[in-house]
Each structure stands twice: as C-alpha cells, then as structure tokens.
C-alpha cells in the first residue's frame, strides 16, 4: 500500500486492520512491515493511519459486542507495534439507547483496558456525524472521554470533515471559530489527523454520506482554507471519498496545488 500511495502522489495512507465488517486478521509478515518502514523513511512519509473495523462498538449494550471490541482493539494495537509510532483510528461507538453518559463511561473504560505505558501507537477518536446514537459528534463528548483516560498521552483526535460538518460544525463558513472551540474543549494539541471528505448533505444533517472533494455541500473553497490553515497544514490527511484510484490521484494533486 505504501507503493500505491506513492504512485497516487501521496506520502501516507489509511488502511483497515482487518475486514472492515470484522473478522480475524492475518498475522503480520515482519519482512513486509520492515520493507514498509524503509519505504516510508526513504520517501519522507507522514504517520500512517490504521482504521478499526466499523463493527467495533465499545459502548454497545451487548456484553459480547463489547468483548469483541476489547479483543479486536487489543489485537490490533499489539500488531501495530510492528509499525512503531503510527496511529490507530476508531469510531467511539453508538450507545444504542443507554444514554450518552453511559456510552462515554464504557468507551473510556475500554481505552483504559487496552492502552499500555510503553506502546508507541497513538489512538485516535474520530469525530462522528451523530447518526443514530453515535457518540463523538460533540467536542464535549470527546473531551470527556479523554478526561477519563489514564494514559492521555496515547490519545488524539481525527477530524473527519464530512462528519463534523454533518454534526453541525460550520467548517465551510466559520473554520476559525470551530478550531477555537476545539481548542477550548479538547485542546488543539490533541488533533493528530484529518479525514478529508466532502459531504452529500448540508450542515447539521447527521447523515454521514461522503462526497468527492469539491462536489458536495462543503465545497472546494473550504478545503482550500482547511489544507492551508496554519494549524492544520502539517497534519496527515486521508481521503475517504467515493472514488476510483484515478480520482484519488486527481484529488491529491488538487489539494497539494493549494
Ligand atoms: Fe471512520
Ligand atoms: Fe472518516
Ligand atoms: Zn463517514
């Protein structure tokens, strides 16, 4: 995947740690990861980002589902150490009627169970659109989860532009004030990565439907402001737009041209 990122003009990539719908992961081939480490070094890569499966729900009401989240995340984080000093992103989860407070408690509990002192990976909570009972659509919720985690220095945030816009944060017209709010509630130093996606739906619609860069409700001007913003411009960015490889290549070119 490192080679493919290079071919598309990128210097980082996001990957699923296993089938995004869940299931067992292949054991890691150390020669393979060592080759990737060298490729990354030789080509000035930023940190790469692993994404946990979508089925992982740390704040499910069902104990088996929570146990799956614990087993999966523990195993993923163990395997991430083959690629030291990178990042692991997950969706905080859906509280499915148990309430936001209970959800926050379960998510922070999981993090306290899976993180360890000497790990080299930074674990990122992704900002969510607020579809259904999703936690993480308000900066206050993410800030409260971090408050309750003991090893706070292992934790960061990944802003998904489609999700925050869907959650009601107007990064199109008020990027500056959204970042100020983020800083006040979470602390801007926790922001470690961005998912760059346009949104098929208007501000605050809680739908989570990604669109190609510049073809949705966020629009190209906003992306220009985002990737050139002094606080954001050095963050690793990842595309999750509905695209073919050639489309990604064009988007990377366009974003880099700014
Ligand atoms: Fe995600
Ligand atoms: Fe995302
Ligand atoms: Zn999404």
Short descriptors:
258 residues, TIM Barrel, 9 helices, 13% strand, globular, binds fe (iii) ion, binds zinc ion
Topology:
Blueprint: H1 2-7, E1 14-16, H2 30-42, E2 49-51, H3 63-80, E3 87-90, H4 100-114, E4 122-126, H5 139-147, E5 155-160, H6 161-167, H7 175-185, E6 191-196, E7 198-199, E8 210-211, H8 220-228, E9 237-239, H9 245-257
Parallel strand pairs: 1-2, 2-3, 3-4, 4-5, 5-6, 6-9
Antiparallel strand pairs: 7-8
Helix pairs in contact: 4-5
The protein binds fe (iii) ion (FE) (2 copies) and zinc ion.
Give your account of this protein's structure:
- The protein starts with a helix and ends with a helix.
- It is of the alpha/beta class and 258 residues long.
- Helix 4 (100-114) packs across helix 5 (139-147).
- Strand 4 (122-126), helix 5 and strand 5 (155-160) form a beta-alpha-beta unit.
- It has a single domain (2-257), classed as Alpha-Beta Barrel (TIM Barrel).
- It contains nine helices and nine strands.
- The structure holds fe (iii) ion (2 copies) and zinc ion.
- Zinc ion (ZN) binds next to helix 6.
């Amino acid at each position: 995947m490192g080679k493919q990122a290079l071919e598309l003009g990128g210097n980082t990539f996001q990957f699923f740690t296993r089938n995004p719908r869940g299931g067992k992961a292949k054991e890691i081939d150390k020669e393979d990861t060592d080759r990737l480490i060298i490729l990354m070094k030789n080509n000035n890569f930023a940190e790469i980002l692993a994404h946990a499966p979508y089925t992982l729900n740390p704040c499910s009401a069902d104990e088996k589902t929570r146990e799956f989240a614990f087993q999966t995340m523990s195993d993923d984080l163990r395997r991430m150490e083959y690629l030291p000093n990178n990042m692991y992103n997950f969706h905080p989860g859906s509280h499915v009627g148990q309430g936001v407070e209970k959800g926050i408690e379960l998510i922070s509990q999981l993090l306290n169970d899976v993180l360890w002192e000497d790990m080299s990976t930074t674990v990122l909570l992704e900002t969510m659109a607020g579809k259904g009972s999703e936690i993480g659509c308000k900066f206050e919720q993410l800030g409260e989860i971090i408050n309750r985690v003991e090893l706070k220095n292992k934790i960061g945030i990944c802003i998904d532009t489609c999700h925050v816009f869907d959650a009601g944060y107007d990064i199109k017209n008020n990027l500056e004030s959204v970042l100020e709010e983020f800083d006040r509630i979470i602390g801007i130093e926790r922001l470690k990565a961005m998912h760059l996606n346009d949104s098929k739906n208007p501000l605050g619609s809680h739908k989570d439907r990604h669109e190609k860069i510049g073809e949705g409700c966020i629009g190209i001007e906003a992306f220009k402001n985002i990737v050139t913003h002094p606080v954001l411009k050095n963050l690793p960015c990842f595309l999750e737009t509905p695209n073919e490889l050639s489309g990604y290549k064009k988007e990377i070119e366009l974003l880099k041209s700014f």
